[in-house]
Specification:
By secondary structure, the protein is an alpha/beta fold. Helices cover 53% and strands 15% of the residues. Strands 3-2-1-4-5 form a 5-stranded mixed sheet, sandwiched between helices.
Length: 227
């Protein structure tokens, strides 16, 4: 099946627009201007629809090719206001800073924590060796009932990795002038996490030559996902 069937613009332009949107802190209008500078005239509404449709397709393909996450998950939640109502964004990142899962829920009680843990275990194919959380009691409930053999740490400052990972969401939330619905937010955050993981090359930890090699590999994986 041709992924791009019945689309007027060629696949290279569509995939490039989607990559720009999820890779950088850009609005649909920003992407429209960047394409226009190259002589490609496309409306921001078309770009928005591309990002919804193809963002989900590329995300599924990237996840199928993902080599797996580490054995330690840093888990945290942050509130997100949508249409005047407070929701909680649950996020798990591994020791390499890759986002293992994100999930938007209306509450942060024990039931919500167990729902997120089940989703996390299902999507990642097994129990982690260790989880690190804050002292929210809901985490203790989910840990005892679902993964009692896993080490659970709640030491002060140890969960800073999870807290810092929320910054990217806050930045994009401002660019998008807040999320419009829970469905839109969930779709965006899952796709954004997949693209960020692919290009999470830890530039500050490796030599320039090695970084360039990693970047070439990341672009090769992206090319396969959008083909």
């Amino acid at each position: 099946m041709n992924t791009y069937k019945r689309h007027r613009f060629p696949p290279d332009i569509i995939s490039y627009a989607v990559w720009l949107y999820y890779r950088f802190n850009l609005s649909h209008r920003d992407v429209e201007d960047l394409l226009a500078e190259r002589g490609i005239i496309v409306s921001r509404e078309a770009i928005r629809l591309w990002c919804i449709k193809f963002g989900a397709i590329y995300t599924r393909r990237l996840k199928r090719k993902h080599l797996g996450y580490g054995d330690t998950f840093y888990i945290g939640e942050v509130f997100v206001k949508i249409n005047g109502k407070q929701h909680y964004l649950w996020r798990a990142v591994d020791q390499d800073g890759e986002v293992a899962d994100v999930y938007l829920q209306a509450k942060r009680d024990g039931t919500a924590a167990k729902r997120f843990f089940r989703r996390l275990l299902r999507n990642n194919g097994g129990e982690p060796r260790k989880i690190v959380t804050d002292k929210l009691r809901s985490y203790g409930v989910a840990h005892r009932e679902l993964i009692p053999e896993t080490i659970h740490s709640t030491k002060q400052y140890e969960n800073n990795r999870a807290e810092q990972s929320h910054e990217a969401t806050r930045v994009r939330e401002r660019v998008m002038r807040k999320f419009k619905s829970t469905g839109q937010a969930q779709r965006f955050l899952v796709a954004h996490a997949s693209v960020s993981n692919l290009f999470n090359l830890c530039r500050h930890k490796v030599r320039a030559e090695h970084y360039r090699d990693l970047r070439v590999s990341a672009f090769a994986e992206w090319s396969k996902a959008v083909a």
